[in-house]
Amino acid sequence: MNGLLSQIIKIFLPPRCIKCGAVLSDDDGLCPQCFNELNFITAPYCYKCGHPFEEAVSSKKLICANCAKKHKTPFRLNRSALYYDDISKDLILALKFMDKTENAKTLAKWLCMAGYDIWKEEVDILVPVPLHYKRLIKRRYNQSALLAKELSKLTGIKVDYTSLIKHKATKPQVQFSGHERVKNVRGAFSVKHPENIKGQRVVLIDDVMTTGSTLKECALALKKAGAKSVDTLTVARVI
Ligand SMILES: [Zn+2]
Ligand SMILES: [Zn+2]
Question: From the CA of 9, how far away is ligand 1's center (Å)?
């Protein structure tokens, strides 16, 4: 009944800006003022890890010094839509902790744009970064799964919600920094149905990329299960 009621209310109430609440003429998610405050990660950036370059460079597929050095990475491409700052933080925290699940629709549009190079390289499935079941019960939804669901509607790429699992409960990554983050999530993820992952080109979906330790652990589990490639796509990234 509550669901139906909220559907009816939505029909009669005009769409509002998901950040400031201003009434919008179209359901665009954000009003023009709030949209202008967003800091999108734009070219030039490293073709592989997506890290933006400070200086303008003309070459198309430029690789950063870090990627040129590092040979062993489980990722093919990493992309994020926004710089992680106060503006993107608010939108993401609202989706994550304040039941603003409708934000997923707008954030997924930006994921779709940021994934341009990934879609060009071709992919088979979207996989959201999973939560441990205890945290899922507490929060009632997985924000990454909501993002993947909305992104799937825009791209037509299927979502695999069940193969990758977080079997180990870990402390929230915000409590740690650097190497401690790596240690905290080490071995926390596994693939329950390797037959669904084998030979697949996977895009991992998450809200924020901080040091990349969580995404790396997920990618290692997916690779172990036989994934052909793993790309990552997040709403924001700490630069
Ligand atoms: Zn606004
Ligand atoms: Zn790079």
Answer: 21
Asked if 172 and 113 count as a contact pair (C-beta separation under 8 A), the reply is no
| Prediction pTM value | 0.90
CATH of 38-237, one of 3.40.50.300, 3.40.50.2020, 3.40.640.10, 3.40.1670.10: 3.40.50.2020
Ligand nearest the Cα atom of residue 78: 2
Tens of pLDDT along 39-69? Answer: 999 989 999 999 998 877 666 788 998 898 8
Query: Residues with beta carbon < 5 A to ion ligand 1?
Result: 17, 19-20, 22, 31, 34
